[in-house]
Amino acid sequence: MLEPWVRYEDDELLVVAKPAGVNTHRADTHTQDGMYEWVQRQRPGQALAILHRLDKATSGLLVFGKSAAANQSLTGQFEARLVDKRYELLVAHDDERPAVLECHDAVDSTGRDGRIRRSAATDFERQAAGAGYDRWAAHPHTGRTHQVRVHATALGMAILGDDEHGGAAAARLFLHAAAIGLDHPTAGRLELEDARPASFDRVLAAGDAQPDDAQPADSQPDGAGLAAAVAHEARAALFDPADTNAYLWIDRHHDGFADLRLERLGDVALALNYTDGDAPLPPAWLEAWHATLDLRAVYEQRRPRGGGGGPARRVSGADQPRFEVTELGLRYLIDLEASATSSGLFLDQRETRRRLRSADLTGQTLLNAFAHTGSLSVAAAAAGATTLTLDLSPRYLDWARDNLRANAIDPGDHDFIYGDALEWMDRLARKGRTFDLVLVDPPSSSTSTKRSRGRWVVERDLHLLVESAARLCAPGATLFVSTNLHRMRWPRFLEHLEGGLVAADRSGTIETQTLPLDHRSGPGDPPYLKAAWVSLDGDAR
Q1: Per-position DSSP letters for 267-297, written without gaps between them
Q2: Helix 394-406 to helix 375-382 angle, to the nearest 10 degrees?
Q3: Residues 271, 313 contacting (CB under 8 angstroms)
Q4: Which of these, 235, 341, 349, 474, could form a disulfide with 434 (CB 3.0-4.6 Å)?
Q5: Angle (nearest 5°) at CA 9 between 7 and 11
Q6: Where in the chain are the domains?
């Protein structure tokens, strides 16, 4: 499995290419992972150290230390300003602007005593000129927060897309950490580069080709065409295309498409439309998506805030709603006309499948309750586990069997139960069944169970599910609990988790998890997915 985001790695250092729209690290344990946490999860046997940071909106090279010697050496180099950095940026064209500029304005920084002014210096050099925009290189000699952005604005050339510092509206902040030079702890000077994203050259070329700074609609910096391309290049940078072709391509306003998520499912795009009413998707959006990828079809699924909606319907391209996609080397069946709520693969659970897939589960038993189409069972079975897949829908259980077959796994070697999950979990507990892993990802509500006053609601009753699941866990087992209910906040989720464990007379270490990096969140828009891995202690107390 290739890792296209790796630019350099040895026993001392790991240098990665961070996409735009991804934080360097998460602000706290309940916010979305940053690049650091995502990479660390894929290097579980190593202790990575953050040596410097990039703004969320900035793409490019990010260096992590892998040894004490590297951490000490690189920290000293950054503090002593011995690390050479080159950024590339786009700014509005100006014939009268000199080709070489420098700025020494002090920059606000956060210190122990609050906001203070710190000395800063940045050199700028024009690399290419166009009719609408120019590409510049910036060489910061200090490492202040937003230094390149602040200095570019001070020189009268705010970076395209930098709305925080006066830049014109655009699909992204057109700032890229393109090169870094440092002294390797043991191997001498190391010079690394990361090619700028193709969207930079697209903006420059489009502007250069048009008179009077006009640009074709599909390449306007704040237009749908460029927004679709920018969103895709940020996601595609995270995946080996031979290994994964299913991910969230566009996430609502974060990517310039209000009230819409766009899933890439192989050569098909599924638009999840959250607007009320029945207005058609803008033709410019469809054109932008087809221009970005060679799509066979685009489907739309209405998910109005007030409820309702229905199965997806094709809005462009050829009709073939049933097909397979690849994720982390495994194959999953998609059916866009089978359900009003799912394509068959929940993309927000990719990191759960990654964790299962990358573990050695040989000889272990796993219960997957509320299993949907069994994607978690597939990942665990591929890692060697014997699985029991439990769901209320016979059709989804058949789908789960098909997913196993798609990966050359015999469903006959695994068990399936049709029925209400809570009732069956209690029945299994009465029979004395236990499992090495128990996975529960329930719907927000259910009317199928006789428990919980006739209707099970995740906001009120999640602790009951945790209790039932914990009772099915063998000594030292792992319990995974997840909910995608947006209005449930982390404190309440953890209260349910802890309350259920206490009721089951179990204890353990809790590790939280939320949305993968292809999803987006931000201030006022916290991650909707809340999940936890509980490494349980031995027998019940």
Answers
A1: TEEEEEE--SS-PPPPHHHHHHHHHHS--SE
A2: 30
A3: no
A4: 474
A5: 170
A6: 6-219, 239-327, 348-536
> Taking CA 306 as the corner, what is the angle to CA 305 and CA 307, rounded to the nearest 5 degrees?
90
- Give pLDDT tens digits for 291-335: 999 999 999 999 887 777 789 999 999 989 999 999 999 999 999
Question: Which percentage of the chain shows pLDDT scores above 70?
Answer: 95
According to the model, what pLDDT value does residue 541 have? 46
Nearest Cα neighbor of 534 from 449, 477, 483 is 477
Residue with more model confidence, 125 or 539 = 125
| Residue the block writes with tokens 């006789």 | 450
Count other Cβ atoms within 10 Å, centred on residue 324. 16
Confidence of residue 213 (pLDDT cuts 50, 70, 90): very low
Half-sphere exposure of 422 (CA within 13 A, CB side): 22
CA 458 to CA 495: how far, in whole Å? Answer: 13
| Catalytic residue (choose from 55, 134, 162, 461) | 55
Let me know if domain 239-327 sits in CATH 3.30.750.80.
yes
How far is residue 321's CA from residue 297's CA, in Å, rounded to a whole number? 9
Q: Is the pLDDT of residue 149 over 90?
A: yes
In sequence order, the β-bridge partners of residue 62 are 16
SS3 of residue 109 by DSSP: strand
Total H helices, total E strands in the chain: 12, 28
Query: How far is it, in rounded angstroms, from Cα 249 to Cα 288?
Result: 13
Q: What Rg do the C-alpha atoms of the chain give, in angstroms?
A: 25
What is the Cα–Cα distance from 304 to 277, expressed in whole angstroms? 8
CB contact set of 280 (below 8 Å; sequence gap of 6+): 315
pTM: 0.94
Q: Is 55 a catalytic residue?
A: yes
Q: Which fold has domain 348-536?
A: Rossmann fold (3.40.50)
Does residue 134 contact residue 93 with C-beta atoms inside 8 Å?
A: yes
**Pairwise CA distance, residues 75 & 79, whole Å:** 6
> For residues 53 and 24, is the Cβ–Cβ distance under 8 A?
yes
The residue-averaged pLDDT of 210-220 equals 59
Superfamily of domain 6-219: Pseudouridine synthase (3.30.2350.10)
Q: 3-state DSSP call for residue 431? A: coil
- Provide CB contacts within 8 A for 218, sequence distance 6+: 224, 225, 226, 287, 288, 291
C-alpha 202/C-alpha 207 separation (Å) is 8
Question: What are the start-end ranges of the E strands in 141-174?
Answer: none
Q: Whose CA is closest to 369, among 326, 324, 411, 427?
A: 427
Q: Which of 114-128, 230-244, 311-325 has the lowest mean pLDDT?
A: 114-128
| Res 69 pLDDT > 90 | yes
The token pair that represents 432 in the structure block? 């004395």
Separation of first and last alpha carbons in the chain? 43
